[in-house]
Amino acid sequence: MNALVQMAKSLGTVRLAALGGVGLVTLGFFIFLMTRLSQPDLTLLYADLDPSEAGQIAARLEQQNIPYRIAGGGTQILAQSDKTAQLRIQLAEAGLPTGGSIGY
């Protein structure tokens, strides 16, 4: 332990601050990567929706525990990319949406 303290004293405050900064940046980078990789890949499910229809679709997605995000000021819904085709079929069976555009 004394050797570590002696080495830290020999480095000086500027070098210790630089090492601490590099360590914090590295830690932040890995936290960013972990959170980014843990989020599901979302793709456009519907666009140009009426906000009330967007709310109905969002409620159905919540019931099914499917990750989604509302974008475009409430007119676009992005859903898990590997489930978009299945979701479009299920929502069409329920009569949703009555307007808007599908996908792109």
Folded structure, characterized:
The mean pLDDT is 88. This protein folds into 2 domains: 2-38; 42-94, Alpha-Beta Plaits (2-Layer Sandwich). The protein contains 4 helices and 4 strands. Strands 2-3-1-4 form a 4-stranded antiparallel beta sheet, covered by helices on one side. The chain is 57% helix and 16% strand. By secondary structure, it is an alpha+beta fold. The protein is rod-shaped and about 75 Å long.
Give me a quick take on this structure.
It is built from four helices and four strands; from the N terminus they run H-H-E-H-E-E-H-E.
Percent of residues in helices comes to 55-70%
Domain module count = 2
Strand order of the largest sheet: 2-3-1-4
Q: What is the CATH topology of the largest domain?
A: Alpha-Beta Plaits
- Beta-strand share of residues: 15-25%
Oligomer: single chain
User: What is the number of beta strands?
Assistant: 4
CATH architecture of the largest domain: 2-Layer Sandwich
CATH class of the largest domain: Alpha Beta
Q: Note the overall shape.
A: rod-shaped
Tell me the series of helices and strands, N- to C-terminal. Answer: HHEHEEHE
Output the number of helix runs. 4
How many whole angstroms does the radius of gyration measure?
24 Å
Give the rounded overall mean pLDDT. Answer: 88
- Main sheet properties: 4 strands, antiparallel
Poorly predicted parts: none
Q: Determine the N-to-C terminus distance.
A: 61 Å
